[in-house]
Amino acid sequence: NVNSLGNKFLTVNELIRDKKFDALAISESRHLSSDDVGLLRSMPLGYRIFDAPRKLSNVSKLTGPPGGGVVVILIDFLKSTLIDMNFTPKTFEFLCVRISPNMTTNINMIIMYRPGSSPVTGAFFDEFRQLLEFLTIFRGHIIILGDVNVHLEDPHDVHTASFMFLLSSFGFKQ
């Protein structure tokens, strides 16, 4: 969770270059369009961006600057495709990118963000279950990344238990 690329784009760019990352997933980028200057400047030369900007309809002028937005920055030589899952949840944002590093391997990377300012509800778990159901048809590896703002460090928390149950029901591990 970068909590805005607007003032951290140089740090992100340098991190990718210095650590020689092939991929970086970012939640809460706080960008509102794919033309955002901070977003574009966070991408080193030789990389490309897949993004899902925060929708303006989700931004309230009364609550301060917008949160949300998810990004995947990938090195150009990796064959990759944005996967349109034809699913728009109301309780979280997500982006799905398929990376094919060779002819026989697919890595399906899902980056998601659920605002911590919103309570964890049954609707979130219903929509997360729907996302997991969609993912069952994917071939290859599945990696779910991001910030769901559920206190996973507390195994006794009711929301943690529900989240972990859903993951395990679909064969995923935290």
Q: What is the mean pLDDT? A: 92
Radius of gyration: 16 Å
Note the beta-strand portion.
25-35%
Strand-and-helix sequence, N→C?
Answer: HEHEEEEEHEH
Q: How large is the count of helical segments?
A: 4
Report, as a whole number of angstroms, the end-to-end distance.
17 Å
- What low-confidence regions span 5 or more consecutive residues with pLDDT below 50? 58-64
If strands are numbered along the chain, what order do they take across the biggest sheet? 4-5-6-7
Task: Say what oligomer this is.
Answer: single chain
Q: Helix/strand/pairing class, anyone?
A: alpha+beta
Number of strands: 7
Shape descriptor reads globular
Largest sheet: 4 strands, mixed
What percent of the residues sit in helical stretches (DSSP H or I)?
10-25%
What does this structure look like?
The protein has helices at 9-19, 37-41, 122-135, 158-169, and strands at 23-27, 47-52, 70-75, 79-82, 93-102, 105-113, 141-147. It is an alpha+beta fold and 174 residues long. The strands form 2 sheets. Strands 4-5-6-7 form a 4-stranded mixed beta sheet, with no helix packed on it. A 3-stranded antiparallel beta sheet has the order 1-3-2, with no helix packed on it. It is 24% helix and 27% strand.
For the structure shown, list the relevant keywords.
globular, 4-stranded mixed sheet, 174 residues, alpha+beta
In short:
The chain has 174 residues and is α+β, with helices and mostly antiparallel strands.
